[in-house]
Write a structure and sequence with these properties.
Blueprint lengths: L3 H6 L9 E2 H8 L3 H10 L6 E3 L3 E4 L1 H16 L4 H10 L1 H28 L1
Antiparallel strand pairs: 1-3, 2-3
């Protein structure tokens, strides 16, 4: 779903367990109020809520947000169409998500290796 060209525009996802809404906003280039709206529109987007109703997103949710962003902003889908595409293409969506995760991890490992060589 996310083409390599779209990923180059976005910053790499750091190796962390949880991300705040501000961090996700920066990583996906989407404003926080848009992320809160998408939580209502996309049932699969459910960040953990902790004390004070603060949202904490996991890595797979950041990848899902990037997929939603790509569908809406680059591919021209409506919210309903993007929701249907994400729910209807479970196999293809899963494969694309895992490819994205593998590419991201590979890039991070190469960066880590470069740091260790210094």
């Amino acid at each position: 779903m996310l083409e390599a060209g779209n990923n180059n525009e976005l910053p790499p996802i750091p190796v962390k367990r949880y991300f705040t809404i501000g961090e996700v906003s920066d990583l996906c280039r989407v404003k926080p109020h848009v992320l809160r709206y998408w939580e209502q529109e996309f049932p699969s987007l459910k960040p953990v809520k902790r004390r004070g109703n603060r949202r904490y997103y996991q890595r797979h949710e950041v990848i899902l947000i990037r997929q939603i962003r790509s569908l809406l902003y680059e591919q021209g889908y409506t919210i309903g169409g993007a929701r249907q595409k994400l729910s209807g293409s479970s196999d293809n969506g899963e494969i694309a998500k895992y490819k994205q995760v593998i590419q991201q991890m590979s890039k991070e490992l190469e960066e880590l290796l470069a740091l260790l060589k210094k």
